[in-house]
Design a protein that fits this description.
Layout lengths: L8 E3 L5 E3 L22 H30 L18 H13 L4 H20 L5 H21 L8 E5 L2 E9 L11 E5 L15 E2 L4 E7 L5 H7 L6 E11 L2 E7 L6 E4 L2 E4 L2 E2 L2 H10 L4 H7 L9 E4 L8 E6 L10 H7 L3 H6 E7 L6 H18 L6 E6 L1 H8 L7 H7 L10 H11 L7 E7 L12 H9 L4 H10 L27 H6 L10 E6 L21 H4 L6 E5 L9 H14 L15 E2 L2
Helix pairs in contact: 2-3, 3-4, 8-18, 10-11, 10-13
C-alpha cells in the first residue's frame, strides 16, 4: 500500500482507490492517486466512481467514529477541593484552615499547620478515640500534609526535613513502610486522592476501602524510560496506589507510605486499624493524563512505528507470594480496555491478597501469530528476572484470546507443513527470516501458565475479516518492512499452494483473523495441551440465537458463538453483552468466580439476575 498524491489519500490496491482525508472523507480530487483503474464506459465509470466514493465516505465515517470513541472519556480526573472535616476541636479547625490558606503562597507553612493538626488528632487516636469523625479528620490532616510536601518540592525522603509551625518545630522524615532498594520515592509526586474527582465510563464505580490513612496516587515526576522498563524490568510504577500515615514522638514526625495492595492494616501507637485505600483514582489519573487508549487505532494501522510499545508491564510492585494475572488485549485496543475488570476485581479483598495484575501491550496491526511470539519473549524475560514467580492465570480478549490460545498449544511442525508442504529441515529458508518463521510457526505451550480465560475470542476466525470493510481495513494497515521481507523470502519455497503466497503484501492482523486463513485453519486442528484448565466467556447481546451456523446465529456482533466456543472448557459463560464481554458486569463476575476457584477460595453470591455458568467438564 502506498500513499497517493492527495493529502490524506491512501492507495488501496490494484483495483480501487479511496480517500480518507484526515479521517473526514472530504477529498475533492483523486489527482495523484496511482492505483490502476480498469477502463470502462463513461456511464459505468461514473457509476463505479460514485459507488466507490459513497463507500469511501462510509469508511471515513466509520474510521472517524472509531477515532472519536478512542478519544472519548473513558477516564476523567479533574481537580477538586477536598471537604474539610466536621465535629473537630476549634484548635484543629484553626490549624487546618491555616494550612489551606497558605498552601498556594507558602507550602512549607501549610505543611507546618497540617502537622500541628495531625499531631493533635493522632493524640486523640492514641487515647482510644476510634470515632469515625476523628479518623476522618486525621486522614484529612495527613492528606493536607502530603499535599503541602508535594507542592513544596522539599525532600523528606533522603534526609530529615525541618518544618516550622505556630505550634513549634518538627523534624519530618518520610519513609516507605516496605522499603524497596530500587525505588527512590523522591522521584515521585504524591497526590492525595481526595483532591481528584475520578470519573468516566471506566469508573462508574469507585473502589475504596475505609480505614486509617490518606490514600494517595504515586506519580512519576519525569518521563518514563520505557526502554529501561522493557529490558531492565525496573520497578517504575508510573501511577501507583499508596496510603500515607503520620505518627509523632515529641517533635519528630514520621510520614509512612504504605502499599494497600500488600497490606490492609496499619499500626500506630500500638493500635491496629484497617488501612484506608483508593484503588480507582490512580488508574483514572493514568488514563486521563496518558490517554493510553488512543494508541489502539494508530498501532493497528502503523504497527512498525510503534514497535517499541511492545512490553509486559506489571501494574504493582512484584510480589513473589501473589499469583500473576496476565491480561492480553485485542485488535485496535490497548491494556486500558482491562481497566473496568481490574477496578472491580480489586474490590474483592481476597483477590487483592492473592493476585497481582500484569498486562501485555503490543501493536495490534501485527499478524497475531507474530504477536504471540513477542509475548513468549516477554515471558522469557519475566522468567529470567523472577524465576520463582507463581504460575500465571492468563486472560485474553478477542484477538488477545487467540494469542493466549497459542500459549496452550504445542504446534510441532504441523503449522509449518501447512505452509510449506514439507518439514522444517527440508525447507530452504535461512538467516534472520528463518529465525522469525521458527519463532512464529513452531512453538510449545508455556509451562508458566496455570489457567486461561478467553473473552470473546474468535478461535475459528471472524467473518468480519472477509467483509468488504474488513478487507479494506486490512489494506490500510502498513505492513512492517521486516514482515514483508520474510514474505518475499518464502514465496519461492512454498510447495503446498504457490499461488496462495502470490500476495501483493504480507498478511497483517486482520488477514490472520479470517475464517479461511491458513494459520487459523491449521491451529484449530491442534489440541490444547492437557493439564491447563481453560474457560470461555462470550456475549450474545441478550438476544440468544443458534450456536451453530444456522440463522439467527448467536453472536456478540463481531464474534459468533461457533467461533468462540472451544471443546474441553472447564466452564462456558454466555453474557448479555456485545463484543466487550470482559467489561460486562457478568463477565467480570465470572472472572472473579474463576480467580476465587483457582485460589481455593469459597464462591461468592451469584451476580444478581445472571444465568448460571455452564460447567462443561
Amino acid at each position: 500500500m502506498a500513499e497517493a498524491g492527495v493529502a490524506g489519500a491512501w492507495c488501496l490496491g490494484d483495483r480501487t482507490c479511496s480517500c480518507i482525508a484526515s479521517l473526514r472523507g472530504d477529498c475533492s480530487s483523486l489527482q495523484g492517486c496511482h492505483c490502476p483503474i480498469p477502463q470502462a464506459s463513461p456511464a459505468t465509470a461514473s457509476a463505479t466512481f460514485e459507488s466507490m466514493m459513497r463507500f469511501s465516505m462510509r469508511l471515513a465515517l466509520v474510521l472517524q467514529t472509531v477515532f472519536l470513541v478512542g478519544c472519548s472519556s473513558v477516564a476523567t480526573a479533574p481537580s477538586r477541593k477536598p471537604t474539610p472535616p466536621t465535629h473537630v476541636s476549634p484548635e484543629v479547625t484553626q490549624d487546618l484552615n491555616r494550612s489551606a490558606r497558605s498552601l498556594a503562597r507558602s507550602p512549607m507553612d501549610s505543611l507546618g499547620s497540617a502537622l500541628d493538626a495531625a499531631s493533635q488528632l493522632e493524640g486523640r487516636l492514641a487515647a482510644g478515640d476510634r470515632s469515625p469523625e476523628t479518623r476522618a479528620a486525621y486522614n484529612y490532616a495527613v492528606a493536607r500534609a502530603v499535599e503541602s510536601l508535594d507542592k513544596s518540592n522539599a525532600d523528606a525522603w533522603s534526609a530529615s526535613l525541618a518544618v516550622s509551625s505556630s505550634g513549634g518545630n518538627y523534624t519530618l522524615r518520610a519513609k516507605l513502610a516496605h522499603p524497596e532498594p530500587r525505588i527512590n520515592p523522591s522521584l515521585y509526586r504524591m497526590i492525595p486522592t481526595d483532591t481528584v474527582r475520578a470519573g468516566g465510563t471506566y469508573f462508574e464505580e469507585k473502589v475504596t476501602q475505609d480505614g486509617l490513612g490518606a490514600p494517595v496516587a504515586v506519580v512519576a515526576k519525569h518521563e518514563v524510560n520505557f526502554k529501561s522498563i522493557k529490558h531492565d524490568l525496573s520497578e517504575s510504577n508510573i501511577y501507583g496506589t499508596a496510603t500515607a500515615t503520620l505518627s509523632f514522638k515529641g517533635s519528630n514526625a514520621e510520614l509512612l507510605l504504605h502499599e494497600p495492595l500488600r497490606t490492609d492494616t496499619v499500626t500506630i501507637d500500638g493500635r491496629t486499624y484497617p488501612l484506608a485505600a483508593d484503588f480507582s483514582t490512580p488508574l483514572a489519573l493514568l488514563l486521563a493524563h496518558q490517554r493510553v487508549e488512543r494508541l489502539g487505532l494508530v498501532r493497528l494501522i502503523l504497527p512498525q512505528r510503534y514497535s517499541n510499545t511492545t512490553r509486559l508491564t506489571r501494574l504493582q510492585l512484584y510480589d513473589p507470594d501473589k499469583i500473576p494475572v496476565l491480561m492480553v488485549h485485542g485488535l485496535d485496543s490497548t491494556p486500558a480496555t482491562w481497566t473496568p475488570m481490574i477496578n472491580q476485581l480489586r474490590a474483592d479483598p481476597d483477590i487483592r491478597k492473592r493476585y497481582q495484575f500484569w498486562v501485555f501491550s503490543y501493536p495490534s496491526g501485527y499478524p497475531y501469530p507474530y504477536s504471540a511470539s513477542l509475548l513468549r519473549k516477554e515471558l522469557d524475560s519475566i522468567n529470567s528476572k523472577f524465576p520463582n514467580h507463581k504460575p500465571i492465570v492468563l486472560m485474553g480478549h478477542s484477538m488477545g484470546g487467540m494469542i493466549s490460545r497459542l500459549m496452550l498449544t504445542d504446534s510441532g511442525d504441523a503449522i509449518w507443513r501447512a505452509y510449506f508442504g514439507k518439514p522444517p529441515g527440508e525447507t530452504k529458508v535461512s538467516g534472520m527470516y528463518r529465525e522469525e518463521l521458527d519463532q512464529t510457526l513452531i512453538f510449545q505451550h508455556r509451562r508458566e501458565i496455570a489457567r486461561t480465560i478467553f473473552f470473546s475470542a474468535p478461535h475459528r476466525g471472524a467473518t468480519m475479516a472477509l467483509s468488504r470493510f474488513g478487507r479494506l481495513m486490512a489494506r490500510l494497515i502498513r505492513t512492517p518492512s521486516f514482515l514483508a521481507d520474510v514474505r518475499d523470502s518464502i514465496v519461492n519455497v512454498v510447495t503446498v499452494d504457490a499461488t496462495a503466497m502470490t500476495l501483493e503484501r504480507a498478511p497483517n492482523s486482520i488477514d490472520t483473523l479470517s475464517t479461511t486463513n491458513r494459520f487459523v485453519l491449521a491451529v484449530n486442528k491442534l489440541p490444547l495441551t492437557k493439564g491447563i484448565p481453560f474457560h470461555s466467556v462470550m456475549g450474545d447481546r441478550g438476544k440468544g440465537g443458534n450456536k451453530d451456523r444456522t440463522k439467527p446465529v448467536m453472536t456478540d456482533g463481531v464474534v459468533p458463538y461457533w467461533s468462540a466456543h472451544l471443546d474441553g472448557a472447564v466452564s462456558e459463560k454466555i453474557v448479555p453483552s456485545g463484543h466487550s464481554s470482559h467489561q460486562n458486569p457478568e463477565g467480570i463476575a465470572e472472572a472473579r468466580r474463576i480467580l476465587r476457584l483457582h485460589a481455593g477460595l469459597p464462591p461468592v453470591r451469584q451476580f444478581p439476575g445472571s444465568p448460571q455458568t455452564t460447567q462443561t467438564n
